[in-house]
Design brief:
Order of helices and strands: EEEHEEEEEEHEHHEHEE
Strand content: 25-35%
CATH architecture: 3-Layer(aba) Sandwich
CATH class: Alpha Beta
Strand order of the largest sheet: 5-4-3-10-11-13-12
Structural class: alpha/beta
Number of domains: 1
Distance between the termini: 13 Å
CATH topology: Rossmann fold
Length: 191
């Protein structure tokens, strides 16, 4: 059964099977922690967020104050005027540099062995992240709630299709949960 992690916000839909899965909740793009607040409040799963604009973690949540992407290093990032949306893609305006961890290094650093839900809202960097992951990475993830940004940048449709193919190839069923903002929910087949 699908439930909203943020009541009234359809883009926050996840499958409630996470309750019976022993993995962690990972929130990439956790700014304000609104999407993952439900899991933090429940308190029965480790919740790990990553966002370079966030500087605190509520409750027992863990924060990586950087980004997760295709490699480990330092990257240049643009911040929007309102400070809520940031992007690594074509960063030209800002001289802000942030730490990036690859998915593998992020999992090692935070002791992530299994993932109940991976939420990805990283402003067009989702494509390079998914392309950098292999079958071993995907095998530990039960469901992925992801916002593709082709609704904002129509030239990204080919990248979205490639990313969706990666998910399908790695055993996920895909359903659109909030087309207006490009959200899909990918759930592992057979679980």
């Amino acid at each position: 059964m699908l439930i909203e992690t943020m009541p009234g916000w359809g883009y926050s839909l996840v499958d409630d099977r996470y309750k019976n899965h022993k993995g962690d909740i990972i929130d990439l793009g956790c700014f304000t922690w609104d999407w993952s607040a439900k899991f933090i409040k429940e308190g029965n799963k480790k919740v790990i967020g990553a966002d370079p604009q966030e500087n605190t973690a509520p409750g027992d949540a863990i924060l990586f104050p950087g980004v997760v992407g295709p490699f480990t290093g330092v990257v240049k990032m643009d911040l929007n005027i309102d400070g809520q949306i940031s992007s690594l893609v074509n960063a030209q305006v800002s001289n802000t540099y942030v730490d990036m961890l690859s998915w593998k290094d992020f999992c090692i650093r935070y002791g992530i062995e299994e993932v109940s839900i991976l939420k990805v809202n990283i402003e067009s960097s989702e494509y390079s992240l998914l392309a950098s992951m292999n079958s071993d990475d995907f095998s530990k993830i039960d469901q992925i709630a992801i916002s593709f940004h082709d609704w904002l940048h129509p030239n990204e449709r080919i990248q979205k299709e490639a990313a969706m193919s990666i998910l399908i190839k790695n055993g996920f069923n895909i359903q659109s949960i909030y087309p207006r903002w490009g959200w899909i929910l990918a759930t592992k087949r057979g679980n």
